[in-house]
């Protein structure tokens, strides 16, 4: 789920009827990630009530919930700011378990945004709290994410070792969700050094996620297997896992998953020289991205569109798509340089809202 998307948003909070009880964090969490729009409405209501009545704990909890909501909506800068806001509250300082989780999630957002130093710092703070609390589960979870950072830095052996430490703990306690996650992560680490082990671990992850019906991660497993089999040119198995991922990804149309899966399908069919099907999938991906914009996916799609036009020997379309790809890539680079401005703007909008509600 790697992405670099920068959003400047305006916050509009629904009014709360006098005497109406604000929602609880538990109620909000019951809609994450299944119904993010409803979760957002409830979290906004809780935040508005908390700001109006200066309820520190509710500010922290609503900020935590909004951090999760924006994470699932691929808005990682906004997500990070809400986790930071949650950590600033007295509630977080008094409840270190809450702080541990906020720091852990903050690290994930920084990782996705490519701010690896900040990500590692957040993870290390989370790990320190977990060790202080003798929270073995938290230690294992943080080791999982530090392993991902190590892999990004190209240190795959260290990533595999940290991942194994986490896996041993989750196997010991029988936590199937995280056992599956360790296999899923191992498949990515081994992809760069041993394709056979990458496939072996992805298959183990798939069995677990099928058993526990974790659709979100199951799509990732299927997509990874599709990609691994494309790499070794086993088109039959690549097709098999693409179809599974494509079918399930309809559940997550708005999460960038559908377009990501379709892009893998286009690449597979370019390799198979099935250009009509590749073109059909490309049109479907363009439709999905028009409905659910995602800058990273859009740039990936532009890249495969250039390749498809080249293979089809469509010179006019190739030149148009190539120029579009260059322009989009340039814009992404400019957006990365402007990320600090975007973050300051988000802080400004949030603080403006807070001040207006306190008046």
Shape: globular
- Quote the average pLDDT: 86
Low-pLDDT parts are 1-19
Estimate what percentage of residues fall within beta strands.
Answer: under 5%
Name the helix and strand elements from N-terminus to C-terminus, one letter apiece: HHHHHHHHHHHHHHHHHH
Structural class: mainly alpha
- Please give the alpha-carbon distance between the first and last residues: 40 Å
Q: What does the model show?
A:
The longest helix has 23 residues, at 315-337. The chain is globular. It contains 18 helices and no strands. The chain is 79% helix and 0% strand. 45% of the residues are buried. α7 (116-132) runs antiparallel to α8 (136-152) and α14 (257-271) runs parallel beside α16 (295-311). The protein has 359 residues and is mainly alpha-helical. It starts with 24 loop residues before the first helix and ends with a helix.
Which helices and strands, and how do they pair?
Elements: H1 25-29, H2 36-53, H3 56-72, H4 76-88, H5 90-94, H6 96-112, H7 116-132, H8 136-152, H9 156-173, H10 176-191, H11 195-211, H12 215-231, H13 235-249, H14 257-271, H15 275-291, H16 295-311, H17 315-337, H18 339-358
Helix pairs in contact: 2-3, 3-4, 4-6, 6-7, 6-8, 7-8, 8-9, 8-10, 9-10, 10-11, 10-12, 11-12, 12-13, 12-14, 13-14, 14-15, 14-16, 15-16, 16-17
């Amino acid at each position: 789920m790697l992405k670099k998307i920068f959003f400047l948003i305006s916050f509009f909070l629904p009014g709360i009827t006098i005497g109406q009880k604000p929602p609880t964090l538990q109620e909000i969490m019951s809609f994450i990630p299944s119904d993010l729009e409803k979760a957002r409405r409830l979290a906004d209501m809780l935040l508005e009530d908390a700001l109006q009545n200066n309820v520190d704990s509710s500010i922290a909890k609503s900020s935590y919930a909004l951090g999760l909501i924006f994470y699932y909506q691929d808005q990682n800068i906004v997500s990070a700011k809400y986790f930071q806001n949650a950590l600033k509250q007295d509630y977080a300082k008094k409840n270190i378990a809450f702080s541990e989780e906020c720091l852990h999630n903050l690290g994930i957002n920084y990782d996705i945004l490519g701010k690896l130093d900040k990500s590692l710092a957040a993870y290390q703070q989370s790990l320190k709290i977990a060790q202080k609390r003798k929270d073995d589960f938290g230690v294992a979870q943080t080791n999982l994410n530090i392993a991902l950072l190590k892999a990004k830095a190209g240190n795959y052996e260290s990533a595999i070792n940290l991942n194994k430490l986490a896996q041993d703990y989750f196997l010991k306690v029988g936590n199937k969700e995280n056992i599956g996650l360790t296999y899923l992560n191992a498949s990515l680490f081994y992809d760069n050094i041993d394709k056979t082990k990458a496939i072996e671990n992805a298959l183990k992850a798939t069995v677990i996620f099928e058993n526990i019906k974790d659709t979100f991660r199951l799509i990732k497993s299927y997509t990874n297997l599709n990609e691994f089999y494309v790499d070794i040119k086993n088109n039959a198995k690549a097709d098999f896992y693409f179809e599974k991922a494509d079918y399930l990804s309809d559940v997550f149309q708005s999460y960038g998953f559908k377009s990501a899966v379709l892009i893998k399908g286009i690449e597979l069919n370019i390799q198979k020289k099935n250009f009509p099907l590749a073109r059909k999938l490309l049109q479907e991906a363009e439709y999905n991205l028009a409905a659910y914009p995602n800058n990273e996916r859009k740039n990936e799609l532009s890249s495969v569109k250039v390749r498809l036009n080249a293979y089809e020997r469509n010179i006019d379309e190739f030149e148009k798509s190539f120029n579009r790809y260059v322009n989009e890539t340039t814009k992404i680079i400019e957006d990365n340089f402007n990320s600090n401005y975007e973050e300051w703007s988000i802080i400004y909008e949030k603080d403006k809202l807070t001040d207006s509600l306190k008046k």
